[in-house]
Design brief:
Helix content is 71%, strand content 0%. It is globular, with a radius of gyration of 13 Å. It contains 7 helices and no strands.
Length: 104
């Protein structure tokens, strides 16, 4: 989520609200909040994010989390999502299905 939010070079208020909402729903403690802050300070690299996937299903979840926070109207964020999907090896049909789920 963080990587997708900062794909355009910054995290705006709306994106930060979505991240905060996700943290709240997880009942995240202070260590998680510190981890999130550290991740927000890191440079953006879709390949590094894709390496976190331990299975195809996990890769799909990573992509979906990014999709939930990304602004589909922003060229840079769309490019990030495309590269992330490529790095994760996601099929076009699955990407279309996930996009449809999020836009409903």
């Amino acid at each position: 989520m963080i990587a997708a939010a900062k794909a355009d070079g910054h995290i705006d208020e709306q994106e930060m609200a979505k991240i905060d909402q996700a943290l709240s729903s997880l009942n995240a403690d202070q260590s998680v909040h510190q981890l999130i802050q550290a991740e927000m300070a890191k440079p953006l690299d879709p390949a590094e994010i894709a390496k976190l996937a331990v299975s195809p299903e996990h890769g799909t979840e990573i992509y979906l989390a990014s999709l939930l926070v990304a602004d589909e109207q922003n060229f840079m964020e769309k490019a990030y999502l495309k590269e992330l999907a490529n790095q994760l090896g996601l099929e076009e049909g699955l990407i279309a299905q996930l996009n449809a789920q999020v836009t409903q």
